[in-house]
Amino acid sequence: MLPVYFKIAWRNLIKHRQFTILNLLGLSTGLACALLIYLWVQDELTIDTFHEKDSQLYQVIKTAINGDGTIHTHETTPGLLAQSMAKEIPEIEYAVPVIVMDDYGENKGIIMAGSKYVKACAQFAGKDYFNVFSYRLLQGDKDKALADKYGVMLSDKLAHKLFNTTDNIVGKSITWDQGDKINGTYLVTGIFEAPPANASTQFDCIFNYDHYFDTFKDDYGLNKWYSNNPHTYLTVKQGTNVEQLNERIRGYCKQKYKEAHGEKEVKWAGDIFLQRYSSKHLYNHYNNGVIAGGRIEYVRLFSIIAVFIVLIACINFMNLATASAAARCKEVGIKKVTGANRRSLIIQYLGESVLMSFLSLLIAIIMISLLLPAFNDLTGKSLHLQFNTRLLLAIVGITLLTGIFAGSYPALYLSGFNPVTILKGQLKTSPGELWIRKGLVVFQFMLSALFIVSVLVVYKQMQLIQNKNLGYNKDNIIRFANEGKLRNGLGPFLTEIKKLPGVVNASAMNGDFTGKHSGGGGIDWPGKQKGIEFDGIDADYDMFETMGLQMAEGRSFSRQFGSDSNSVVFNETAIAAMGLSDPVGKTVTMWGRKKQIVGVVKDFHFESLYKNVGPFFIRYSDENENVIVKIKAGTEQATLAQLKKLYAWFNLGLNLEYNFLDEDYAQLYAAEQRVALLSRYFAALAIIISCLGLFGLAAFTARKRQKEIGIRKVVGASVQHIVLLLSKDFLMLVLLAVVIAFPLAWWALNQWLLNFAYRTSIGASLFIVAAAAVLLITIITISLQSIKAAIANPVKSLRTE
């Protein structure tokens, strides 16, 4: 019996070619979108979940109250925290500190073996690192490989670059060049498999944390409880109630600070809590010390978009199937008279729908194969259409549900016809049927209007971000690493750079203005009443001038005043939080070292626009990791060519690798930019699918009313009158959809904009533009059929039976 149903279904699809093509286009496009989004969502949800102890693996997050009363959240913690927690808290199995070098703007170091050298990204980790994380060891003992202060573990990829193999490498020596104090010769103690693509952190080698601690404990206050330097990761014992543990450890750092420094009350030393490591990628935004979302919002958003796009395609199918029911009513009547029951008819029509859905799936898979490379470029991922069990189940499940959902109403509708009424020719369209069909059209275009408004608001927000005055000038500035022989002294190199035609200025700094910097709470000043968490960088002479920073008081670092080795500049927010009046000339203590305030810089944005400007300092230093060069507009290519030659002369054997600062800034919003771009494409597809359905309905309406149109033309109706007659009902439905959509869009987009400290406005003009766009698209779609019907020969229309 089943083959007979599919044979009849196939014949009906061929018979009604126009509606079949429209449905195939709509359903295949909807399924292709849904499956592409499914691949993206699955990739996002599997980030960092490959670790064996995923359910036990946590990161320690620190919060601290700033001078203005807001709670600042750090993923970095005191340098002593991991060791202390592992020793004192019984629920913790292992705890390790990890210094991620890129956190503070340090660039890749240079690792050398014999005559070979490559750039590599390093971490400094505690000895239990491989008991916490499940990176596979190819050589070495996970309990001993990171116990040697002068040992290093290499990834298999880095080992191949240096030694052309991963065999028999343990015990060989390499030379590391990252900074003066950490440079040196190290012995290879193990080889690990490089982090997979779904790891949030990518790195090439791991050094011993104790070595880093001993080297920089005085510089960064690593041995103080007010520092913010390493990340702290830990595994809890099975069965641990993490919520209860979080309550117990909340004031842990405060207590340790009081014990170490003998203070009675320390409100500002910070609280801590544990966050599941594999959730950090998706939940990385914090509001006053509480997790407030992150990329998970985009995962939910695109999941909803996928459902909506498939819904729109299903609605097309429903509308076109019920609209064309009149053409099949005699078929239903005859089948019922000859003994067919309603159940068999429902199965038949659902079978047609499922067949249509699986035909659409074949087309969708072809579309995905063609579009996946471009989709990967848009998303910055390496997604593959690999037909594993999970993907096959997802594809078949989505397709089957789509077919059943799309065909459910038409099946119930067609199978419910009264055979006597049908065969007497007395079947009329019921008001309920009309209302359902109209309601589905309204729902379709409500979603389309939502998409259009969302695209416009996201675009406006991205424009605000790109064009906002940041307090410094990011245009035509390049940044590159201080590496190789340049580490012997940047002074002569910077002097020569400034002589190049096209160079406006040049300087150097540790960290940058895109969120990579150090800081903490270990700063004291005259009359200090409360603790403040600071962010800050180190910088050389001419940095203020190169970046275009403006001074509110005092001066920037200058050779005219002798050595500035003990000088510091704070921003306006810091001075206000510190409660200092006439700050220039006053002395502060920064992590045990005396510094004199020589100036106050006007507030500028040193992080993304998700955050308000916080307390910030800039210390003078002539040992910095990054070189910055301001280039005259219009001379970029010629100046860069000269700069590359100069770099090669100073740093033999290395090529200049640089980034433009505006590109670095744009990376802060890479996810938002991708969301904006993808939203445009998905909105366009949703509108196209909706228009396919509207086009079919317009064609059906024109065909159904062709005799009426013929009569009207005979009695003198104009083409414009006929077009308006056929279009007005659809336009009213679309206008109703717009009215419903706009309040929903306003609410949802305002919720999204709350994530930003600086956000665009949603004005009436934006909704007017969106409404005009939706109505114009509607008019163009239905006019194609309306004009065709209006200019048809009335004689042919009236002869039609």
End-to-end separation: 35 Å
Assign an overall shape.
elongated
User: What fraction of the residues are assigned to beta strands by DSSP?
Assistant: 15-25%
How many structural domains in the coordinates? 3
Name the poorly predicted regions: none
* H/I helix tally: 24
Q: Nearest-angstrom radius of gyration? A: 33 Å
Described by its quaternary structure, the protein is single chain
Mean pLDDT: 82
The helicity comes to 40-55%
Keywords: Cell membrane, Membrane, Transmembrane, Transmembrane helix
Domain MacB-like periplasmic core: 20-251, 489-642
Membrane topology: Multi-pass membrane protein
Subcellular location: Cell membrane
Keywords:
801 residues; 3 domains; ABC3_permease_C; 24 helices; MacB_PCD; 12-stranded mixed β-sheet
Give your account of this protein's structure.
This protein has three domains: 1-47 and 295-428, no CATH class; 54-280, no CATH class; 484-653, no CATH class. By secondary structure, the protein is of the alpha+beta class. A hairpin with a 2-residue loop joins β23 and β24. The strands form three sheets. Strands 1, 2, 3, 4, 5, 6, 7, 8, 9, 10, 11, 12 and 13 form a 13-stranded mixed sheet that branches. It has 24 helices and 27 strands. α2 runs antiparallel to α20 (670-704), α14 (431-467) runs antiparallel to α20 (670-704) and α14 crosses α22. It is 49% helix and 17% strand. It is a multi-pass membrane protein.
Structure, briefly:
This protein is an alpha+beta fold and 801 residues long.
